[in-house]
Specification:
It is a single chain. The protein is of the alpha/beta class. A hairpin with a 5-residue loop joins strand 8 and strand 9. The model has no long low-confidence stretch (mean pLDDT about 95). It has one domain: Collagenase (Catalytic Domain). About 35% of the residues are buried. The radius of gyration is 15 Å and the shape is globular. It has 5 helices and 9 strands. The protein has a 5-stranded mixed sheet, with helices on both faces. It has a 4-stranded mixed sheet with strand order 3-4-6-7.
Length: about 180
């Protein structure tokens, strides 16, 4: 399989070191060329005042409509509380087998749960979420392997319990035997 270029588009402020480490991890995991770009968006267009959150479906559609060249996967990075209508909140989402996804740092922060800030843990969680959503763009569904990054994560504790890499079975799904 030809592995497409991966583009991470940051919407909002992210520390350069966080983006660099995130990009390096993504590049190693998917054996792909990687680009990080800055995106500009009026987030108020995606805000739902009744929920006090941002509509993940609409954010995903926006990212999917971005002009990208060639054979590429694009993931929008956000730092806002996102939801889809059937769930209270989500960490991210992607089009299965598509070219786009989104991930948010917001609910990965310890502070959301009344705990002390932990920059290292936040970065690890974000790496896992970004790789997970990109995995969906490559056609991977949720994995039953407890340590696989493609295992479903309903709570932040679920993210903490898994690795930031694909299991051998998921890796074979992308790259073949």
């Amino acid at each position: 399989m030809i592995i497409p270029e991966i583009t991470l588009v940051s919407f909002g402020y992210f520390e350069k070191d966080l983006l660099d480490q995130l990009g390096e991890t993504v590049q190693l995991e998917f054996r792909s060329s990687m680009t990080i770009k800055e995106g500009h968006i009026d987030l108020s267009d995606f805000y739902d005042p009744g929920r006090r959150q941002y509509n993940g479906n609409n954010l995903l559609k926006h990212v999917d409509a971005l002009p990208i060249s060639g054979f590429s996967k694009t993931l929008g990075l956000f730092n806002v509380d996102i939801f889809i209508p059937i769930l209270t909140y989500i960490f991210g989402q992607a089009y299965l087998g598509g070219r786009s996804g989104i991930a948010s740092l917001y609910r990965l922060n310890n502070e959301c749960y009344g705990l002390k800030a932990d920059a290292h843990l936040l970065l690890e969680r974000f790496k896992k979420e970004v790789i997970h959503e990109l995995g969906h763009t490559f056609g991977l569904i949720h994995c039953k392997n407890q340590s696989c990054v493609m295992r479903s994560s309903t709570y932040v504790e679920d993210i903490d319990q898994k690795d930031h890499s694909l299991c051998p079975d998921c890796r074979r799904e992308i790259y073949g035997p």
